[in-house]
Amino acid sequence: MSPTGASSVESIAENQRELPFYQPVDNECELFEHAYRQRLPLLLKGPTGCGKTRFVSHMAAKLGKSLFTVSCHDDLTAADLTGRYLLQGGETRWVDGPLTRAVREGGICYLDEVVEARKDVTVVLHPLTDDRRLLPLERTGELLEAPDDFMLVISYNPGYQHILKSLKPSTRQRFVAKTFGFPPPTVEREVVARESGLAPERCSALVNLAARLRDMKGQDLEEGVSTRLLVYCATLIAAGMPILQAAQATLVEPLSDDEDVQEGLLEAIKATFGE
């Protein structure tokens, strides 16, 4: 893959050492397993930091399958996914991209925030998302048929959609889909406590604070505070950092650059923790 792309591959052996922690909220685990066994592609929708990527890692490990993860961005092209000819040792050789590797070897290919990629990426995905399950490689003249243990999973955040960056209905309707939101308070508290090491009773206040801050979305904030940021905050607190300093670094600065908005966030934090 070219330097413009970002991908990672988790092997079956690595996945089976320890199942990545994920607390189910609805029927998402059952849906994923059914989609995998029926060779159906899956679309995950939801806000940043709500657990979509962790969910996919959890399910890949649970199924014992290699996971090829690609973080999509503005410069990501179809060639970054399929592969390209590169000069190696004085010779020009074809090097498979992560999507091609997943199709050849079997496994789960996860494209995170797929709407961020260039438009030619979705064109490459279409033949893999119908009953053909094919990946044409024009540069090599190959036509790869995906094996039974190949699965395509994509995700995006509908809250950031606009006319230039949206998933066309013709693409969305090729996928089984599941909407993710932030976990219910009891589940989110368990997740934050498990991930950070902070006592559950101390995590309750953070989860309650998150609910207040999420109510500000669409008013002062573009996006509500994520579960990921709550984990960061709890981790700093568990390490001994004062609560207000930890909250400033994780629940204020990442959410807004506006001084008035930051002041409002700090007031909400102080009211929650009585400081």
TrEMBL record:
Domain ATPase dynein-related AAA: 41-175
UniProt cross-references to InterPro entries, sorted A to Z: ATPase_dyneun-rel_AAA (IPR011704), CbbQ/NirQ/NorQ/GpvN (IPR050764), CbbQ_C (IPR013615), P-loop_NTPase (IPR027417)
Keyword tags: ATP-binding, Nucleotide-binding
GO MF annotation, one: ATP hydrolysis activity
Pfam assignment, any one: AAA_5
Residue intervals of the CbbQ/NirQ/NorQ C-terminal domain: 188-271
Family: Belongs to the CbbQ/NirQ/NorQ/GpvN family.
Designated name of the protein: CbbQ/NirQ/NorQ/GpvN family protein
Taxonomic source organism: Pistricoccus aurantiacus
